[in-house]
Every structure is written in C-alpha cells, then in structure tokens.
Design goal:
The chain is built from 1 helix and 20 strands. It is mainly beta and 394 residues long. The protein has 2 domains: 1-180 and 299-394, Immunoglobulin-like; 185-298, Immunoglobulins (Immunoglobulin-like, Sandwich). A hairpin with a 5-residue loop joins strand 5 and strand 6.
C-alpha cells in the first residue's frame, strides 16, 4: 500500500507594532505602521515623553479620561479593533505588549476604551477616548499598560512558509501610584549557549525586578576558564517592569571553547547592586561571529537578537515539519495556528492585540516583547535547543 504524501506548511504569525524606546516610547514621534499612526491627544509641553505615551499620576480609586489620535494615511478605509492590554518585559528587556486574545491580569484591566472597534476613512483621523480607573487597593509604584489599535484584517502570504501578518499600534500608559516604592533587582540562573538557531556564543542571565518601580539596569558578566579565557562584558539594559523576570541573552564577543567556566554577574540600578557567581559547563564549542556580526557586544543591536530568535523559531518549525512527514501516513492539510501572544517594543513578531512591551514583540517575550517591543515573536526557539548545547550550572 502506498503511503499518501504528507504535506505541511509552516504557518508563522507576524505582528508589526510601533517601536518603543526609553522607559516606554521615544518622545515626539507618533507610532506608525501599516499606513496608520497613533499618538496621545493630551500632552505636556514640559515633558516631551508625553507626546508618545501617557504618564498619569493617580491615587487608588481615581478615574481619568484620555484620548488617542488615530490617523489613516492610506487610500482605503481602515477598520481597527481597540483594546487595553498588559505591558510585559521583552526577552531582551524593554516594554512589549500582550496579544489581544491574552487574558488581561494587570494594569491593562484598568483601561476601558470608549469603543471596541472603529472605521476611519482614507486620509482621515479620529479621536478615540478611553477611561483609566485605578482600583482602590492598588499598590504604590509604576503600573504599565497600553491601549492597542489592531488592523481587523489579517494578510496571509503564500508559498512554503505561510505568514500571517497582523498590524497594530500601541500607545503606552504608565500609571504612577504615589507612595513608598522602589525597584528590587535580582539575578537568576546563568548558562552558556548559542543564540537561537546559531552557534554564536552567549551567556543567558536571569534578570528580574521584584520591586514596584521601572528600572533600566546595567549588567556586567565576567567569564574565567575555558583554556585561558577571561573577559568581562558590560551592557546597558532596557526597561525591566516591576514584577517581571526574563532570561536575558547576552551575546559574547569571543569564541567559547568546550569546558568549564567560572561566571560572575553584577547588575545595578538606582543605587542598588546585586551579584551572582556560578560554575558553568559548556558541552561544545561556540564560535564568535565574523563579517556582518559585531564582535563588541555593546554594538550588537537588539534587532540582531530578534532576527536570531526568528531564525531559530523558523528552523524549529522546519525540523518539526520534516519529522512529522516521516511519521504521518496520511495527508495533513495546511493549518494556521492561533495568533501567539507577544508583547511589543517597536516592531514585534508575535500576536499582540491591545498593547505594551515590545517585543514583546512578541513574548510573551514574552517579550517578547513583542516580540512586540521592537520584537518579533516567533515559535519558541527553545524547542530547537539541543541538550548538549545547554550548559549546566552548579
């Protein structure tokens, strides 16, 4: 009996969102993607950041109404879905936003848009209001969310790799509740591994903020061992949101040979400093990049990490598809998986709906976030990590 050929396409959901930098967004520029842009209607002349995101100071029990200006620069009417979303810390730090279908568990639940959908004529703009209500039991500190505008249409490309493109814009809402609050840094486990889908060396460091204020920490990692290897890499991280922790991939500028290493990490922010020491084992050589890959870690832009994550995710899908083709005796129709979560920093690869990292991005990434935060959130690159490439910590 002949076996029916198995056919399968890799479906990838790509969410594009406006890039955000600094604590939440770059000041003075409306977030724009896919032919439409969004920006706060209420701004403060003394604070340029308010041209990109909202920064209300509100007490528990307070309510406030704010507005977003949405402009359609395209030649066709544009239908958008509107929603409040939670902010997340992206995989490479920075604010990203959860997907529209993700449960809203944090400050995203404090936002209520006046409408859940809106259609804007070509070359026109509209003002959309939303209410902010701080619960009576809200703790002092920073509470970050976003108001998201997502194109109701999804575009799908053909070919072997089917890509579902979702376009959305997010305006961050950073609510400060007065009272005693501070960041609280923490360093988690460390390991040596290749950047997703590559043999480029990296040190993955658990980075966390268990406090109540935003923080942009500086991270320093030193490695000793591995046939005389000794080097320290310092990097300024982006925002780590209160209550979040991520496994941060720090690209390493030199080849790491198979063997044992002594690692020392130090992270500081707002007068706080935490350290962690670990003994790490690497099961195989990791080769430093040449040519188009910067050798100085501080010069390696975040988008390179995001692309590496994207490539790792796509490779995982290809390997998974090949394995299933060998195992499945019947034809499997092409399917499109549900939009994955993702947060957002600037452009993100993930499925966010209403609002902040990424970058999320996303991812989450979430981060992602995603990948919305300048993030491309793709299939989990961890799926293709081989055990012999993942060092152990003792």
């Amino acid at each position: 009996m002949k076996r029916a050929p198995s056919t399968r396409k890799l479906a990838l959901t790509l969410t594009l969102a406006a890039a955000l930098t600094g604590p939440l967004a770059s000041a003075g520029v409306a977030h724009a993607a896919g032919g439409f842009s969004v920006r706060p209607a209420e701004t403060s002349p003394s604070d340029p950041a308010t041209r990109s995101y909202f920064k209300p100071v509100m007490k528990p029990g307070d309510s406030l109404v704010r507005h977003v200006i949405v402009a359609n620069g395209g030649d066709q009417p544009l239908s958008l879905l509107v929603s409040g979303v939670d902010a997340l810390t992206g995989q490479t730090t920075g604010t990203v936003y959860a997907n529209m279908n993700d449960p809203v568990r944090k400050a995203g639940a404090w936002l209520t848009p006046q409408t859940r959908s809106i259609t804007i004529p070509a070359h026109s703009q509209a003002t959309v209001g939303f209410a902010i209500h701080v619960p009576g039991g809200a703790e002092p500190g920073d509470h970050v969310a976003g108001i998201a505008f997502q194109d109701a249409r999804q575009r799908t490309s053909g070919g072997h790799f089917r890509i579902i493109e979702v376009i959305r814009e997010v305006v961050g809402v950073a609510i400060r509740v007065p009272g005693p609050a501070a960041p609280k840094l923490s360093l988690g486990q460390m390991r040596l591994t290749g950047l997703p889908g590559t043999t480029l060396p990296s040190v993955v460091v658990g980075v966390g903020n268990g406090g109540r204020l935003l923080c942009q920490p500086k991270l320093s990692v030193s490695l000793r061992g591995g046939a005389g290897h000794g080097q320290t890499v310092v990097r300024q991280l982006d925002t780590v949101l209160p209550g979040d922790a991520v496994a941060y991939p720090l690209p390493w500028p030199r080849t790491l040979a198979k063997g044992s290493y002594a690692a020392h990490a130090m992270m500081s922010c707002d007068g706080q400093t935490v350290t962690r020491d670990a003994s790490l084992t690497l099961g195989r050589n990791l080769i430093s990049g040449r040519g188009g890959v910067p050798t100085h870690p501080s010069s390696l832009p975040t988008w390179v990490l995001l692309v590496a994550v994207a490539l790792g995710g796509m490779l995982a899908g290809v390997l998974l598809g090949r394995r299933r083709r060998r195992e499945e005796p019947t034809t499997v129709p092409a399917t499109v998986p549900p939009t994955p979560p993702a947060p957002a920093h600037a452009s993100s690869v993930a499925v966010p709906p209403p609002p902040p990292p990424a970058r999320p991005v996303t991812g989450p990434a979430a981060t992602p976030p995603a990948v919305e935060d300048d993030s491309y959130l793709l299939p989990d690159p961890g799926r293709i990590t081989q055990a012999d490439l993942d060092p152990t910590e003792s």
